[in-house]
Amino acid sequence: MPTEANTGFSKSTGANKELRAEELLGRVADRDVEALESLYDEFAPRLMGLLIRILSSRPDAESALQEVFLRLWKEAPGIAQTKGSVAAWLVLMARHAAFQRLRAQRTVAARPARSPLGQGRTKEEKSAGKPADSGRHEHKPQERRSAKSGSETLSFLSAFPQLWMPRPVDIALADARLGLLQRAFNQMPKPQYVALELAVFDGYTESEIAAQLGEPLGKVSAGLRAAFTFLRHRQHAVLGTWTAHI
Amino acid sequence: MDRPHLEDVYELFVLGALPEEDSREVREHLAQGCEHCLERVKEAARTVYLLSLTVKPSSPGPKVKADLLRLLLKR
User: Fold this and answer.
1) Above 50 in pLDDT, residue B37?
2) DSSP assignment letter at B8
3) Is the CATH code 3.10.20.580 the one for domain A177-246?
4) Which of B9, B23, B30, B51 to mutate to test the interface with A (most CBs of A within 10 A)?
5) pTM (2 decimals)?
């Protein structure tokens, strides 16, 4: 996992930045383009890093980044009313924009090639009546249902930010102690971390992760829950006291 | 999921990684306004936020911002 130095986030100024962001959001809600520009300058590099990590394409990431800020402009009045953290909203909506694109790409990749002559298929596939792209990209019905679930959840979060947006003060506190938190996260057992990365950066559901790792769904599911329990405990330790030993 | 609160699923819910049946149950539970779970989902969102920031930042090209501002001024 990347280190504190990679985050581009100053521990000493993190809280101030987060609190200033809320003031900027209020101005964006009042149609202040300069305020949106300031929010862009502040958050775009971090969002861009995340989007590139998810989409593996700079042009796609830039397009998704633009989509997120256009959406912020459009929805700022409603977001401001929630009194939640605009930093958290931007990150979660960047994830939403990225995974919508990623899922669309995967759907296209999973679709059988339209070739009346069956070009590109092996003799075995043709004789078995298999579609052209029925190998590692094939999505089983259960996986398609899982992908649908992920998409519906992200749409739900997108539609009801008041239900999940953390308070600015909580994000400011977490930002201020980001280095400590990342050191704690780095202590996670490796197998759990691998599954976690597939959920966080590849947008896979539990069943898709199980398929990717070739492991039983129950084992993957339990491992992911254990990983988040680990992270919760570490966060409570770091955010609960400055003297926490991690 | 027959627990009164859905303690250990919220991070997976925010990530969109739960099976549809469990995800629907969470959405319905949150829509009922369970204060305990609304706090938990906020905590989960903070965890996802922090995990998402573990990647190295990267500056977008200058054209992205210029195009964005041009689009905003058109509206």
Assistant:
1) yes
2) G
3) no
4) B51
5) 0.81
